[in-house]
What does this fold into?
Amino acid sequence: MPKILQLKQHVADLIAAGEVVQRPASVVKELMENSIDSGAAIITVEINSGGMTYIRVTDDGCGIAPEDAKTAFLRHATSKLKDAHDLEAIGTLGFRGEALAAIAAVSRVDLMTRQAGSNEGVSLSLESGDVVDTSPTGCPEGTTIIVRDLFFNTPARMKFMKSDRAEGSSVTQAVLRCALSRPDISIRFIKDGRTEYHTPGDSRIDSCVYSLLGRDFEAGFIKAQSADEAVSVNGFVSTPAAARGNRSYQFFFVNGRVIRSQLIQTALEQAYKNVLPSGRFPSCVLYITIKPGSIDVNVHPAKTEVKFYSDKQIFDGVYYAALGALEDSKIFNIESQYTNPVLQSDNTTLYHDSGSIFNTTQIKEKIILNIPAEHNINVKTGDTSMHVPFDVIYDNCISESSGTYIPYVSHEVSGKNDIRTDMFLCPDPIRVIGEAFNVYIIIEYKNSIWFIDKHAAHERLHFDALRSSNYESMSEALIMPVICRLGHEDVSLLLENDAFIEALGFTVENFGDDSVAIRHIPAEIDIGDTESILSDICDQLKKGGSAVPVQRDVIYKIIACKAAIKAGRSSGKTELEILAAKVMSGEAAFCPHGRPVAYEISKSTLEKIFGRT
Ligand code: ADP
Ligand code: MG
It folds into this structure.
């Protein structure tokens, strides 16, 4: 072995620089982070040749005192930390004191800076980390750093650089992330003389997203929010329809820091599990705020990963924010289809307030059920309008005369005196053509032919019903109880979770050591399936308990699937019509397993096929 020697400072610096500065994008990221930490309101980033020859970052932040300017370029020199104690709650993006030293070690750097309120600033030039020039200067308040000829003195590193175009697009990505992270800062990005981005800095997430990602993107986003004492989440997630084939538009920010996180990604995607098929991914811009003491940001040299002290808090925060957004979007979509969702009714006709949309519509007698006095809906009879208490299920409203019908109107009461009407009304008539193979409903709707998978549609609708907060199971009392031999472990599991099991529509009684007696089952399932369903439910309960929402969803899927099989055996015309209308009103786009529910062939496609265009 050769003799052991301590490395020369210059060599050690180059090695350290390699960790922080890997390519132009990492330089831009570090410089932008410094500008953000300086309290800037406006930041300008400019690059030429992918950042290889020229990078400039200018801010209007606090500036650097002339006597500190040289120190800023020393390794482990920082104004953001004083002692080890400060490491426990880092409130700035930087804290390692390495970036300027690392950048300067592998390039030619010019610094111009003036502190707010000072008459004079300072300028400094460095080459390979050595100061080659310094002088007082008159410059605007704030800081400009110019980095030229990156890696000119480290040919080995230079060899790893990709084309200027590729490096330039990594820089663009880095600027995008930084700019998204702070809607309150106006960020301009100029690439080879052309302005690529310019954010307004008005603190609005939507205008920031709009200026960086464009109108289409912003239009596919829905607001997501959740907060508890530990974690708050704020931002946007994509509608299922705006999902993409990759994850490149998933942006997560924790306390203003751009991060990558498998945990957060999983939480987001779990929320979409029931609305997206595999291979489709949600996009998002999510800002997560937690106490600085509950994360460790000092786990990665480029600070792009963090460690959370409680993974569960973060997971739940993101999961519920996304889930809530998806549920709200359902209401939003429905409302937005109807300009005026007030129903008019004279007990034999039910039509939309805007007039003639629904022709005379026969309403079956059982429509008005069980009306609690505290809820009202505006119902019009001829010219008079009255408030009618409302716990109504308008079901099976078929228009005999015109083929236009209101297939299903239900409501959800989300709180006292707060009435939400979910109306699954199709604005356009649907014509059911028939059913193929006892599986696919074929319909004509607007300018398309649709094929609907009956089983998948049933499953989806049933699954949604089970999941909705005000679901009340329709239990069927059995004349003779079903005895299920499930084994000792499963029996005690079912009895422990009896409230949850009951909410699903079963009543379970102990029947000896290894059996239960079932006196009620959900009306939608077959009596013969009881034992296998309960046993599947037990398997899921063993994995995680009924309290975990993801777990609960799996159980709902089991029941929805069995109910769909039962419902799907033979269908009358009315049932096909109702199912088709529900699907077309957007209620069921994918089955709970992620398979599509409906498939569209447009008239124009058919015309192309048959050479009619
Ligand atoms: P860190 O950001 O981890 O502190 P850096 O090497 O990036 O380390 O920067 C060193 C120091 O230089 C910072 O702590 C800060 O005091 C100063 N500095 C760097 N950039 C700026 C800037 N744009 N405005 C004001 N001060 C800056
Ligand atoms: Mg820094």
